[in-house]
Write a structure and sequence with these properties.
Layout lengths: L2 H23 L3 H7 L4 H29 L1 H21 L3 H29 L4 H31 L1 H22 L10 H14 L1 H31 L4 H18 L1 H9 L2 H17 L7 H16 L4 H9 L6 H29 L4 H19 L7
Length: about 400
Amino acid sequence: MTLNRRFVIAIIIPTLLIDIGMGLGNTFLPLYARGLGASMAAAAVISALMFLGQALTDLPGGWLVHRFGDKNMMSAGGLIIVLTMILRYFSADLLIFSLSVFLFGMGTSLVWISRMSWMKKEIRGKQRGSLMSLVGGSLRVATIIGPLAGGFIAQQAGYRVLFASQGLFSLAALAVIIFGVPQTVKSEGSYTYSLQSASRRWKTGRGTILAAAAGIAGLTVLRTSRGILLPLWGGELGLNESLVGIVMFAGGVVDASLFWISGIIMTRRGRKTAAIICTAGLALAIGLLPLARSFPALIMLSALAGLGNAMGAGINLTISGDLAPKVSPAAFLSFWRFFMGFAGFGGPALAAWVIAAAGTLAAPPLTAALGFSGALLMVFFMKETGKH
């Protein structure tokens, strides 16, 4: 079997199926939580539990993949995702629903780490860049069609049908993983060596790593808050699921149309330039949410957020790849994903705290300010990683 065919079966098809399933339902998690009786603040936290699940799995996930192999842990992650969809389908209270969101994050973490390990072993040289771009493309396909289709399904047929649709996509992905993904050789060397490699890299570049982590963490806060606060705000305006899906669809179209500009900016102007433009666009869109009092205004802010996000497409992977040690980088990348996962959970959690303490109108501007402050730390204290 040729590399391209193996890559399509092992990576592209499962990724596309899982991402479309995510796109169908994740936009509407906060609205469903609200329907179960959660306050706006609680709905934000519950929807962000996915990122907490990812963060808590990233560190042991690297060791598990190293120990048990790529296909085995990719299958385990896919099975967890399917089980979460069964839980979600039968969820009638907030506790079970919250557990399903958390476990979903654990499953996606295992799939992501296994997928990256598989690609690192199987794809080498000049093919890596072009094939990796297809993975990013699958996510953008999901961000376009997922919210639009999911909103229509939820509005016309209800949330149970929506969750069942997610489950079918997840089950199809698991079947492809089990029957189509070839086994790879176990990772060479001990995981301890990878930890030592990460420690050496930390000692030689501590300041730049901290500044880069602050910038990407701020950006992650804004990205996760975008996916939760925009639907919640639409719900507060009285928009139904179909209209909320259109709002998110608008941002996805802009993002998917212009993401290629990010590569040009990072190559010609540097990683920091891309980061500040991306963060500024997202911060402005989120910060202006209190002024959005109509459906067209919310669409405009969603499009602005999509534009900002497109300017930093791939920047997390790029900067973490720049900073990771050349030899045995798995542990470094696991720690990086661990902290970014907590940042992803922290953004909505902060918004929830502000909503509870100071009201709904204060949360978006403060979240935007926090995210943008991370980008400023990166600009002033990070050495340009593209020169490494």
